[in-house]
């Protein structure tokens, strides 16, 4: 260093060169949660050209879970299995209506389909032959909903703009009960999943009423006020909670607690038009389970997935048109959404697993509609030895873990090939001081560092001097870098004298060293002042 001081006059101006840290760029989009990945796994298929708004959607409770769509004066039946092949044509269409179809509902065995229209007529069809079996006429105004009870094959519910809810005997084509209590249009209805006698209705008078057909005076047994015209209402699977949709909110009510509101979800910007219950597959401690969710759609074009256990929205999806209806298949593999411009967005989830519905079981003598579980693979089966990498291990399997392959950096690859100089130049160009020092220490261990320095050209030597001027005085690296600095100057002094650029790097190096010396002198002065005081304090 004495030779450098002789060549360059000492400067009285000291300057510290700060290194601006690199800021990590923010990710453009948040990582998907496991639940968002589940809902995004539904392969979307567009079913266009259905003339007008999709007023109602309904799935058959029995496999393969056909779904029916009501639009204009027609009802079309679609097979979810054909969606996987890209076939969007309906398997059959029912067109024996004189007015716009407002609502449809399958019986719990999937053999019959009830449909209502704006002429006030309710019809019951055979799903296979599309033959109208019953024509129920008693409403004086348009009928807005028709519903088969979950646990009853013999009766039917309907309601409409005459503010009357009718309980029908389908076989006799007669009205069993006229339930009057609403003061405005009755728009929606759902039946209890645990009792064949209980159901709930929603009206434009802002009220939701719970009815029991065993009550003699035909009055509602419970009433709650949603605060806005009610567009849809559903029972949640437990039977003790209901969800209502109206305005831009979905509210959950506790019926067992006397109609207490549990939560109000207001994430939509416009009117919520339809809600249904969906199910999501969750993994807890290695065990898979199904959890229920509320799916809501609205005129803002959004579908929201609401976890009513944690009371939060877990997924949101945007569609290019106002949404009018939504439905979810009992086997949890198909989701359909109807829009106001006659398009159905049908989502089919990939995979071959059969998911048990859980909505309808072997209750009160009715047979279960869940699909049979796949046979468990055993070591005695030939198929057991042909499992692929995607096969999930069972409880008794012994897992052989394979270490993940470590991706080497460019300088590590060059070191493995014994290209020492190229490795040093590569790591210097990346400007990561920890990696540079690590490579230098490796070259020292291989006794190749000085040879690499002697073989550097002018540009590469400039990179090295730049690094040394910025980091040689750092206490963490000074023991290695200060010695290297001295050797570099001694070995390449002629090259430095012949290059103005290299002289500039040497001047920067000199300034940083002088600044460090000044700081050290200041610290020694402070130490000289403090040391006597500490000795005096120690004697006391």
UniProtKB/TrEMBL annotation:
One of its GO terms (cellular component) is nucleolus. The keyword Repeat applies. Residues 391-533 form the U3 small nucleolar RNA-associated protein 15 C-terminal domain. SMART domains: WD40. This is U3 small nucleolar RNA-associated protein 15 C-terminal domain-containing protein. It comes from the Eukaryota. It comes from Gossypium darwinii. CDD domains: WD40. PANTHER family: U3 SMALL NUCLEOLAR RNA-ASSOCIATED PROTEIN 15 HOMOLOG, UTP15 U3 SMALL NUCLEOLAR RNA-ASSOCIATED PROTEIN 15 FAMILY MEMBER. The keyword Nucleus applies. InterPro entries: U3_snoRNA-assocProt_15_C, WD40/YVTN_repeat-like_dom_sf, WD40_PAC1, WD40_repeat_CS, WD40_repeat_dom_sf, WD40_rpt. WD repeats lie at residues 136-178, 179-221. Keywords: Nucleus, Repeat, rRNA processing, WD repeat. Its main location: nucleus. GO terms for biological process: positive regulation of transcription by RNA polymerase I; rRNA processing. It is found in: Nucleus, Nucleolus. Pfam families: UTP15_C (PF09384), WD40 (PF00400).
